[in-house]
Specification:
Elements lengths: L15 E2 L2 E2 L1 H22 L4 H26 L3 H10 L10 H8 L6
Antiparallel strand pairs: 1-2
Pfam family, one: DUF4133
Organism: Pedobacter fastidiosus
Keywords: Membrane, Transmembrane, Transmembrane helix
Length: 111
Amino acid sequence: MASIYQINKGVSKPIVFKGLKAQYIAYLAVGLVLLLIAFAVLYISGVSLFIVLPLILTLGTLLFVVTFRLSHRFGEFGLMKYLARKGLPRSLKFRSRRIFTSLKNSDYGRS
């Protein structure tokens, strides 16, 4: 008697929702929650709806545009790689070789 097993073929693929890839879904969700909180705070504090609504709609539109643009430009891991590359120094300057010569004579590399 043969058994039938289902094979999940999408195990290692990134999550994609309406063109957003991987972490950009979370960025959009966090941004929308922050916009909702900002709307509530501004409305409760007594700011006019004629000011609050256009402001929140503009920021929401900007959030969507920027998030989709980043997702399209960098993909799943590209933004993290881009930010990591920007964090690296262009060059290192040493005024003395003492740090390297002391490594040779110390017990640093011995187990």
